[in-house]
């Protein structure tokens, strides 16, 4: 009497990967996610490789994980994969204080984000 299998959260021609607790603001992470949205995976990997943004390396790892999930778990062809979705969400915010003049304090917010990448297999138009 085992548990029933979880239903798939994506279609049969899709695979996804998710990274949570990324120490960067969602606004900055979304700039990098927008760079790869809708592109073929090899072009997206090349853009992330040469991007000057600090977080591009972590985004590249998530994209490689989504590609590996597509190949190993769902038997999709990696040459015909496209980044279908790359979306960013908020996570927790660390709150800190900084001493200011005359005994006052200023708030420092240190936000965390989460990133989800969905790759989809598309047929080549001949």
From TrEMBL:
Top-rank taxon: Bacteria
Subunit structure: Part of the 50S ribosomal subunit.
GO cellular component term, pick one: ribosome
Stored Pfam families: Ribosomal_L22 (PF00237)
Source species: Hyphobacterium vulgare
Name the UniProt record assigns to this protein: Large ribosomal subunit protein uL22
Purpose: This protein binds specifically to 23S rRNA; its binding is stimulated by other ribosomal proteins, e.g., L4, L17, and L20. It is important during the early stages of 50S assembly. It makes multiple contacts with different domains of the 23S rRNA in the assembled 50S subunit and ribosome.
Gene that encodes the chain: rplV
Keywords (A to Z) from UniProt: Ribonucleoprotein, Ribosomal protein, RNA-binding, rRNA-binding
InterPro entries: Ribosomal_uL22, Ribosomal_uL22_bac/chlpt-type, Ribosomal_uL22_bac/org-type, Ribosomal_uL22_sf
Family to which the UniProt record says this protein belongs: Belongs to the universal ribosomal protein uL22 family.
HAMAP family registered for this protein in UniProt: Ribosomal_uL22_B
SUPFAM superfamilies: Ribosomal protein L22
Keyword Ion transport found: no
